[in-house]
Amino acid sequence: MIQRLLKSFIYRLQRHLRPEMIGGFRYAPGKKGIRISNNSHISFPEKLSLGNNVFIGHFNYLDCLHNITLGEGVQVTNYCSILNHSSHNSIRLHGTHYMEDAPNFKGLVEGPVVIGDYSYIGAHAVIMPGTIIGKGTIVSAFSYVKTGVYPDFSILRGIPAKIVGNTRETDKTLLEEHPEMKAKYYLKGE
Questions:
Q1: Which of 39, 57, 151, 161 fits as disulfide partner to 78, beta carbons 3.0 to 4.6 Å?
Q2: Where residue 161 sits, what CATH number does that domain have?
Q3: pLDDT tens readout for residues 99-156
Q4: How many domains, in total, are found in the chain?
């Protein structure tokens, strides 16, 4: 009888500690509006920092060996990779000694990633380690964002991604078409 009660208690406790699954998406406890696809993989989830209302779609890979921070309202669509380390140089340098030299790799690229509030990461995008993307940024589909710092409101596109525009320009046109949205607009007052 005690074993059954203990098992029931542990099951109920685990249910409250893990994300709840609704319609194929996990909902993180203690956060508002976070949706993470059950088909996305997050390595070292304890090093993932999420703002409210973050969406992480299907088939993404978030490598949180070092910290990844997704600000409020960030959307990561589908098939994206957000990386904290990459051995793309190390494999050539170490050659056949790669596995025996682990974890002391030369040429390893690593570092935390920060994606600012209300940014949008298009499908199949790759964000490399040590990247800081400013708020209100759009990373176009199939873009490769090299390590670096990208300013607020950038539109990034290409391989490697380059700044090709400013989201405030697009937003100005949209707000003229939909004036009722001015009161809700994220950048009001800036």
A1: 57
A2: 2.160.10.10
A3: 888 888 888 889 999 999 999 999 999 999 999 999 999 999 999 999 999 999 999 9
A4: 1
Two tokens, residue 135: 């708020």
What is the pTM assigned to this prediction?
0.81
**Residue 84 near residue 39, CB atoms below 8 Å:** no
Q: Which two tokens stand for residue 69?
A: 């921070």
Task: Please report the sign of the dihedral spanned by the C-alpha atoms of residue 121, residue 122, residue 127, residue 131.
Answer: negative
What DSSP designation does 19 have? P
Which residue in 187, 119, 125, 114 sits closest to 154, CA to CA?
119
From CA 42, how far away is CA 68, in angstroms rounded? 10
* Structure confidence by residue, pLDDT tens digits, 29-77: 667 888 888 899 999 888 999 999 999 999 999 999 889 999 999 999 9
